[in-house]
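Hey team,

Filing this mostly as a record. A colleague (T.K.) asked me to run one chain through the structure pipeline before their review meeting, and I want the input and output archived in the tracker in case anyone asks later how it was produced. No errors, nothing strange. Just documentation.

Input sequence:
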Amino acid sequence: MYLSGPKLVYLFALAMYLLFFLLFARFFFWRRYSESRFWRRRPNLSLAKVQEIAKQRQEQLPFFSILIPARNEAEVIEKTIRHMSELIYDPKRFEVIVVTDAKERMKNGEDKKNYILDTLQFLDYALENNWRGPLRPHVQEMVVGLLADLCIAEYKDQTCPAEPWLLPPTFTKEPLWKSRLLLYELTADILKGNGRISLYRVFRLFRRYYPELKDKEIESIYPNYLCLAVPIIQRFAIWTGNDHGALMRNVVQYSARANHRITQEIVSRLAKMVGDRVQQVVAEMQAAGCLKEHLEEIYQFCFPCTQQIVERVRTELAQEPNKPVVKHVEVPYDFDGKFKGKCLGYAVPSTKGRALNYALPLAVDERTVMYGFYDAESRPDPNVLLYVAYRRLTDEQPVRIFQGPAFQVRNFYDIGPLSKLASLYQTISHDWYLPIMFRRLPFVGGTNLYIERQLLDELGGYDATILTEDLELGTRAYLKTGAWPEYLPYPSSEQTPATVKGFYRQRLRWGTGFLQVMDKIRQDDSYPREQKKPLLRELLLKGPLEWSFFQCATLIPPLLMFLWLTGQVDVEEVPNSVRHMMNAFSVVYLCFTFYAYFRYRKHLDLAARPHTWHGRFLALAQLLFLPVASFFFPVPFTSALLLKSVNRHPTSWTKTPRSKE
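Output structure:
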């Protein structure tokens, strides 16, 4: 039977669609394997049980050192440290070490001088005349922070305020810095919206600062804070010479609608009273020469550095009972990056491996038997230390490397459609496919990782020159010592970059680092050939070949659509039932995506969820972008291949952007 070209094209398309579906069906095999080998075999552990095992073996509980490299992580590091301090384990048998970078503190200090000088110049002019022209963003942040601080103080100092019921009850229950920060962020968001702010952002903000409050309680509190923001916005509008009448109409009407007890007249009167008093206080500080000193404090809460937050949390936890020791190590700006390295006297580029190499020999407790590594926004399973300790105590031949899955979905509600879909499928991969990968590759990730101290010391720490220092460590551990990672069935929730640009840059670094590891292995003749050659073959298969295959696969649907539109596809040769079955594959993919969302929903940061049902519906509706988004998933990796081939690949380590928590 003769088959024309259009018929052959359609038969080829059917064959490809069937192949892709079979590749997709592997997910269910992977799930069965991972659950039967790991997830269902997790022992029922408690601290008392693990302590009893140690006692029977006449051993102490293993001592762990958890290291968290954190550069420019002020927005997420506090909750991470607090989460680590609550892991279920004897607090005297583990420590948390946060590794920061001196270059961040140095940059923060330089910015502080410039920002305060610019703000003083603005205030000198604004107190006498209305400002004209554009205002630098950092000056706006500083001025709003100053006004928020003074307004909070004005309300707290009033023994009999004009409207006492306006005072938020949280003022009496929380430290001043928390109320001040909340008011500052709320006001800044209102100004960006020209007097308006979405309730989604309001609820998200309050959930972050007061996670114990329910939405009904937030509903009764946020109008008070909106009213507190009114005098700040009014005074800011006057100082900057904006159309403060239009701005005030927006914010006053918005605040008045927020609670039926508040009238626009009361809000306006209160704003003028407080705003005039704040103007007077600023003028008095300026005359007394203490305004600069006060702005230094304002700068600290408007633009905190990671070190500042780490020290505050560390001090607070030291005063609480049953908390582990929290250490803070700052990497010098000129540290060379080598394990047990030295300072060179000039700035050295920052990398994650460099930071860890500095902290490992310097800060770790001498009792430590195993290192744990987590990213600055990690939230590991509370029982993870119990499991690792249990295995150390009961295994005849202790595992030297444990690698657990990273469920990168926590900031699901803060990210775009592409990142949402990538986060879900990356999580499925870590949940079900990572155990399969360990059968072929000594894959090691940079988070939820536990390595025997003796092994890491023997390896000489990390290679700070590789963009994927974690994968390089895993391959080097195997080639030098034969150590092979085992899957750790205790997840850690993580974030995915919120924007397409952030997603692309992160994956581009991963792809480039993967290729760097392959080059390093090829060039090192000290590794045994019988280990080196199969490993390189697996890296080639799981890296460049797999990336290229899936990138080509994403081009087939648009190509077939083009051929169909131009009349070069003939579907008559295939029965309707077969065509309908093929069309149903798309429904299966979408259903599976929604299944993944509900499966991992407990790992999402619900503080960022929309407060209305239609908001949540729209967030979920973005998953329907799967057919379009799937084209972009392999793009960063194939880009790494192309850039490497023309020697234009990235060579510097780039930090993954975070969503504020």
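Quick notes for T.K.: Residues 517 and 523 are 10 Å apart (CA to CA). Confidence is low (pLDDT under 50) at residues 159-167, 258-262.
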